[in-house]
């Protein structure tokens, strides 16, 4: 009944228009996407009080999450997103136009192109990573498989990204991360604890066999 939840939610912050997404070779919005939207809506007062200057979504796919965030925060924030898929960048441009927001897609691996230029400058960082546990070699496959194949523990892509977070986030910055139980969230919490971050579970939801979680990280 995800559609019913989002019909109700649309009375407050509308779900972004994304009927064009099927025209692109990208990960289409699914239950993990909608859980992330719900979490951002829940966090909207916190995010507005943060008064972010720069927001960055890593692995943007359709661009729906960035469009939703831009609807919450308005024009005072600069919105960037990354993907290694050209089709995702093109889709994000159309999503941006369809929802009357401005999002700047960049073709890059994770956030590599933003360092060191955006070092300690990102106030809102979002990542819905490839988290499905798969054989390690599937992580290197191009195309739509790259949007969900996470390799060992579903963490091969995540673990590379974690190393970039301390250099990206501003002192007041926040990271929202989508994980499932198989990703060993307690281990993730400890990794970030050792890097100087606090962890909070913002929202959870079961979707078929998956138990989804949105983790929030801020500096201690």
TrEMBL record:
Gene Ontology molecular functions: nucleic acid binding; protein-glutamine N-methyltransferase activity
Phylogenetic classification of the source organism: Eukaryota, Metazoa, Chordata, Tunicata, Ascidiacea
Membrane spanning stretches: none
Localization of this protein: Nucleus
Protein name: Methyltransferase HEMK2
Function text: Methyltransferase that can methylate proteins and, to a lower extent, arsenic. Catalytic subunit of a heterodimer with TRMT112, which monomethylates 'Lys-12' of histone H4 (H4K12me1), a modification present at the promoters of numerous genes encoding cell cycle regulators. Catalytic subunit of a heterodimer with TRMT112, which catalyzes N5-methylation of Glu residue of proteins with a Gly-Gln-Xaa-Xaa-Xaa-Arg motif. Methylates ETF1 on 'Gln-185'; ETF1 needs to be complexed to ERF3 in its GTP-bound form to be efficiently methylated.
Residue span, Methyltransferase small domain: 35-133
GO cellular component: eRF1 methyltransferase complex; nucleus
GO biological process: methylation
Species this protein is from: Ciona savignyi
